[in-house]
Amino acid sequence: MFKSLIFSLSFLLIFFPPKHIFSQLLPISPPIIYSDTQGEWNLLHASIGISAMHMQLLHNNKVIIFDRTDFGPSNLSLPGGRCRYDPVDTVLQNDCTAHSVLYDVGTNQYRPLTIQTDTWCSSGAVLQNGTLVQTGGFNDGDHVVRTFSPCIDDSCDWTEFPNYLSERRWYATNQILPDGRVIIVGGRRQFSYEFYPRNPQASSSSSNSQSFDLRFLLDTRDYNENNLYPFLHLLPDGNLFIFANTRSIVFDYKQNRVIKEFPQIDGGDPRNYPSSGSSVLLPLDENTSGGGGDVVEAEVMVCGGAPRSSYGHAVNNVFERALSTCGRLVVVGHANPSWFMENMPLPRVMGDMLILPTGDVIIINGAESGTSGWELGRDPVTRPIIYRPSSEVVGQRYSIMAPSPRSRLYHSSAILLTDGRVLVGGSNPHVYYNFTDVMYPTDLSLESFSPPYLSAEYVAVRPKIVAVNETLGYGDTFTVSFTVSEYLSWREVSVRIILPSFTTHSFAMNQRMVVIKTMGVYREASGSYNVVGVGPSTAEIAPPGYYLLFVVHSGTPSSGMWVKIS
């Protein structure tokens, strides 16, 4: 019911930052569009020179993309004849090619960036000021922290801090915390965690004091590991959900103690690298909280993976069928939770799971057989799946989308873009760049997938945001002004914020959606409306930083607008 209140709030238009022309413009590939009734694929570039192993969207609508320094020379030169000299690089000590690019979504152009140390199988998170903090890697990069701060020109590049980390962090996972720090968990043969920034009171000579043991990681390691890149999700009560292999816990990182362990996921097969399933924290809905300190319910979903024996068989050229199950577990809000299992239409290992602006989950990339590792995947899954967690009919939650013409296997990645498309790149199942005489050549291309909600048939009900506050405070009332041609009902309107992910190795780190508590929708003029919302209740619900805000009307999202939660 509409409330007879007048909200006299000042609106501040948010414009996307101006698109700057790169000093070194690179050719734009002619658009090649593949259409189907279930979404649409668009080839953005046949080659960006590197393979998109890691990706992160920044708040200036540019995407950091990088692979690793020990693939050998890439297909993209560093500008101005610049070269990277690294005497301990395992492949090429003097390298004049780039292994990272900055991709401008608006102009579809990219420029090379310079990485000095090896970023292979590393992790990352974005700080509340918009700076990407990237941690670890391999060889000379395994103790390194690297940062990238967005700029309005072409002057910004990577900054590296050697020996910043107290332990080797290779195949670790990062999670942004309510206080703005980043927790870095695990890594190969590292059963511990640490924080960025580290404790400034600890001297460099006592750097080991920065690391804290986590026995759970040791206990979940099997003969093929299967606990690397553990799934981390920040819960509304401020604790961490950690999933590794088949087991999961609620962990109090402040007191270094396990609060609760859940039942093992059904089936007994691992879901973490190299078995490489994926996981999301389903949308946190502030409209369901009863107030008075009630904690918002939190539910985790884990999908795909490979049988425990898959890695050992794959190295002997026997490729087992990937797992086809998804499990959902209510981790906050249920006294005795158990896994609820569902079957996907297609088996999948090395798939990426992303939350779409509608609250649905897209599962994209990967293979039907084998496992993660060099040459160990077979039967690419080129059709994404969209899962609708809110559907009450269990058998109707999955929809199969249009196929991509490209295989995306080991070392592929995907992220959500501001306009609701999914950016997809990468796939290099080889020790080096390899384009000939192999079953699945190294892929340097970049493409986008447009989910069905971007179809022209939904133009009339698609909202367009025209004004919103640039900064949203915790618990503060704010207004979003939007237009829509065919307005249906206030019941069809919701406001959602998404924290963009750092995606690599089938896990979208830090990703979360919060459904904003709404107070009402008010008509301002013909086709123009205001929706009044309340900022996130706590930093545990939404850690401070830059989020994409969407208005969803009749299941159709607007383009996102950047807002800063603080």
TrEMBL record:
CDD domains: E_set_GO_C (cd02851)
Keyword Signal among UniProt keywords: yes
Record flagged with keyword Signal: yes
Glyoxal oxidase N-terminal domain ranges (all copies): 53-453
Leader peptide range in chain numbering: 1-23
Pfam families per record: Glyoxal_oxid_N (PF07250), GO-like_E_set (PF09118)
Keywords: Signal
Galactose oxidase-like Early set domain ranges (all copies): 462-565
SUPFAM superfamilies: E set domains, Galactose oxidase, central domain
InterPro entries on file: Gal_Oxase/kelch_b-propeller, Gal_Oxidase_central_sf, Glyoxal_oxidase_N, GO-like_E_set, Ig-like_fold, Ig_E-set
Organism domain of life: Eukaryota
Protein name per its UniProtKB record: Galactose oxidase
Organism: Dipteronia dyeriana
